[in-house]
Amino acid sequence: MEYVLDSNFFIQAHRSTYPLDVAQGFWLKLKELANLGLVVSIDKVRDELYDKNDLLEDWCRANLPQSFFKDSSEVIAEYTTVVSWAPTRIPPYMQSALNDFMDADRADAFLVAYGLADSANRTIVTQEVSSPNKLNIIKIPDSCEALGIKYLSTIEMFRDIGTTF
């Protein structure tokens, strides 16, 4: 199984749950799992992480292997499926939610597409929580459920792998 990490996996960990200066075990375990190829992400997530010039960006640059961030252009066919699903959902999402989700500079739809490209062997890891009744935002878990892609939270991922830190 390959676990595909959302931007908020890193951002929420760094900012609140597992700060770099306090929870070093978390970050060492993440580095270990990345080096083993168990956890990966995509270039769109990298772009979201690397736009702040902060300690998190520094840590990622110094600790994640070169191959960690996968090329999202390889899943364009699946991306088309994902963005074709969103406007057909009933009840329909608001246009602003669709515009945000389909923004080519944002990671969410590409992340779902990357999971869809090999849904038997990829699990999306996100801190987002399903919110199917919200029409003003498209949550990753809701798109994963609609398209048959497994998703987990950070802690659920560590349990699924069977590891601790």
In short:
Helix content is 51%, strand content 10%. It is α/β, with parallel strands linked by helices and 165 residues long.
The counted number of beta strands is 5
Structural class: alpha/beta
CATH class: Alpha Beta
Biggest pleated-sheet summary: 5 strands, parallel
Question: C-alpha Rg, in Å?
Answer: 15 Å
Tell me, rounded to a whole number, the average pLDDT.
97
CATH domain fold name: Rossmann fold
| Order of the strands making up the biggest sheet | 3-2-1-4-5
Which characteristics define this entry?
single chain; 165 residues; alpha/beta; Rossmann fold; five-stranded parallel β-sheet; 51% helix; globular
Structure description:
The structure is a single chain. The protein is 51% helix and 10% strand. The mean pLDDT is 97. It has a single domain (2-161), classed as Rossmann fold, CATH 3.40.50. Helix 8 links the parallel strand 4 (122-125) and strand 5 (150-152). Strands 3-2-1-4-5 form a five-stranded parallel β-sheet. The radius of gyration is 15 Å and the shape is globular. By secondary structure, the chain is an alpha/beta fold. It has helices at 7-17, 24-36, 43-49, 55-63, 76-85, 95-102, 108-117, 140-147, 154-161; strands at residues 2-5, 39-42, 69-70, 122-125, 150-152.
